[in-house]
Amino acid sequence: MNNLSLILLTKNESEKLKGWGNWIKKILPLNEIIVIDDNSTDETIKIVKSWKDKNLSVKTYIHSLNNNFSDQRQFALSKTKNDWIIFLDADETLPPSTINYLNHLHLKDNHSYIFHRNLIYLNHTLKYGQCLEDKPIRLFNKFEGQFSGRVHEVWESQSRQIDTHQYINHYSFDSLNIFLKKINLYSTIRAQELFEKHHHSNLFQIISYPFFKFIHLYFIKLGFLDGIPGIIISLSMSFGSFLTRSKLWHLQQK
């Protein structure tokens, strides 16, 4: 059984992390947690340090995000001692079936492992729309790829991708206010990234990108089957697309 290192990015996550102590130590191959904290002012660091025991090393590093999630995760990788890495966000948990899968998994070189995410949004579990596309690589060998994208970062690798058919519970946003703040932040980072790559925005894109984003999520990906939460998240994601293209246009005018 290969030892695993977990990398976790945090910033004022104390409320979300309180329940982690109940399940994180049940992942038997896990012997190291690397926490990269973006200057938290709550009890995040105190909580993660409480997980440490004779079988589990917990190391924390204060490192500013600087609007680049990939760089933050690459920094985390540089601090790990194991080759095999699993990464989670503070608003995610692993159900017993996924923990059992990890405890019996024989990892293979040149393989990376895909997990599905159950999106719990506004206290409703969504099954369609955005969820149908939410199948990230979350377990991999750190020498076989790298993170890409300043926001909504992904692991890029030429390794063979294995669909585990296992789930991560993603407890998204408890309120629209928090969700909209995140959309505002992410759209700013994404617009800056596109601008630096010499992408351009115009009136047609500002109108069409949000429109087709909504059509894609709500109708093509069946988001309407999730009821009111389905239309809320589809419109919110569409609004995020509108903000990104609008902010990109604004950057062009400077």
List descriptors:
alpha/beta; 7 helices; two-stranded antiparallel ribbon; 254 residues; 2 domains; Spore Coat Polysaccharide Biosynthesis Protein SpsA, Chain A
The CATH superfamily of the largest domain appears as: Spore Coat Polysaccharide Biosynthesis Protein SpsA, Chain A
Number of helices: 7
Helix content, binned percent? 25-40%
Reported by name, the CATH topology of the largest domain is: Spore Coat Polysaccharide Biosynthesis Protein SpsA, Chain A
CATH class of the largest domain: Alpha Beta
Per CATH, which architecture of the largest domain?
Alpha-Beta Complex
- Overall shape: globular
Give me the count of strands. 11
Broad structural category: alpha/beta
* Uncertain stretches of 5 or more adjacent residues: none
Q: Which strand-content bin applies to the residues? A: 25-35%
Report mean pLDDT, rounded to a whole number. Answer: 96
Main β sheet profile: 9 strands, mixed
Following the backbone from N to C, one meets helices and strands in this order, namely EHEHEHEEHEEEEEEHHH
